[in-house]
Amino acid sequence: MKIRKSKFLLFLLIVSPLLSVTGANDFSTSLNVASLVNLPSLNFINYLFLLIFFVGFVAMNGLKTWTNLIITTCFVIVVILILPRHFSFYAFLGIVAILSSFLVYMNDRSGLTDFDEREFRILFKVYWFYIIVGVVVHVYLVLRSGYYADYRMMGIFKNPNQFGFFLVAVYIMYVIAIKGPSEVKGYIVFLAIAFLVVMTGSRSALLALLLIHLMHEFLNRKWVYLATLLPAGIILALFILLVDADKVVALISRREVSAVKDVGNMRLEIFKETWRTSTWEELVIGRDASVGTNGMIFEQRGEGSGIIWLDSLVTVLFYNWGLLGLGGFIFMVLIDIGTQIPLITRNAMIISLYVVASLFFVMGDYYPLPFLLVVLKNNLNGRRGD
User: ∠ at Cα 360 (253, 378), nearest 5°?
Assistant: First the structure.
């Protein structure tokens, strides 16, 4: 019996989130499954999966289309020119993690991402099981342990933003690959996921979810529904202004107002500081190789000096590869958006998640997102093109 190539990727998508429940908790609270089970870290296996996926996907598709050929050539140039600047195993993993964030722009012609409806339904059910387990553990830990610095839900992950964007990706999978004829069920799924995203306190994930939901309703021509959202949005905005915008933001973020102001807005400050302290040469070609990804952060911990936290793909690209790297990212995004003008397509939902996520973390470090977005993008363009 012939085994479809997609079975391997389905295996990665199911297993990669589970590896997040291993290892010590290094974040502000212990509201996750990892703190409960306290297993030795197996997260390195995720990077092994990422390396296999990246090499396999590029090898099987790199020469299949002109777009793939150009992107593959850029990958090779980056590795040859950038890696010697900071040659180490962790720097190599960091480059793979960054480059894997661009696989969403490559077209799969090998059949690796050819999921059928049954495989998507299996994955959807498995992910909802993970979500339910994460919610139950969150409630249990809050009730058992009492006060925390914040109450942001992390689920099976160790970062609330990761859980938030995982929930958004599950919603995209639902509306693209699974949604049936029942409109009521679709709204129930949206409301359930929206509530859970609020529980994570991830403002960026909530923004991405709302953008994606509005696009989905626009594509389905739900004009009455969209018309009712306009006055509702105006009333909500007035309410926020009258009550206290800072308190509303703190409520959504599930943190104190001071924490939101001091820590919650650091990504832009880190980018501005990198720009301010860079030489002209560093502005153009970057400072270092792969500093800021998980692999490089691990390496820095062994050096005894301060850790350089970059926290977003945009800042990582700028720090590592300067305006050349950042310009390449912007160019790819604009090209993808340009192919949809003058109409909005379902592809815009995936790109919205990708762009918003890129402002807050490196996609290649947040499993299973680097695998899942490539699957959704290729199934959308292949079997479900607009």
Answer: 115
